[in-house]
Amino acid sequence: MKYTTALLALVASASAIDLYLHGNNDCGGSELRCNNRNPNTCCGTNASTPYRSVAVRGIPSGWSLQGRGYDQGNCNRLQTISGNNGNLWICNRSNNFFYTGVGYNFVSRKRNGVDVPVGVVAKDVKEECQRPDALVLEDGTEYDLTSLNEENFDSLVTIGFNASSSADIPEHFQSLQIN
Fold it and tell me: What are the alphabetically sorted keywords of the record (predicted)?
């Protein structure tokens, strides 16, 4: 069982599964992106920005995953779980709450040699939470968030949530623009 878990983590790290916190309820709008994340990790923020949907993208064909959405800061409280059902991405929409974190896991059909229904998640998984890597504005402009301290991170994320283009971002953050 430990070998299988390690193998799945290695395979996942070789693929580019990205996690997203979106500004609108249809996995669009301004977004925070978490690049190349492993299963059973969390990508989240304590910023007070109202993210209405979360997404898992880059799922390889034939993989069975569950996307998870959290609220109350980072990945403190699980709110939604959705399977990809053969699709290459997952979108979890909110129902009158705001997301603060997103993660994913592999769907296992066996546990200790016994068949387990699809959708059952191991209860003892403690997720590591990491900050998003990039802010992407509605016009596609991207900003690298990895070098920012917590205060500047929260400031840029809040400004970026309300920005429609790079012209709306203060000059002192323009050096972080990726494209």
Answer: Signal
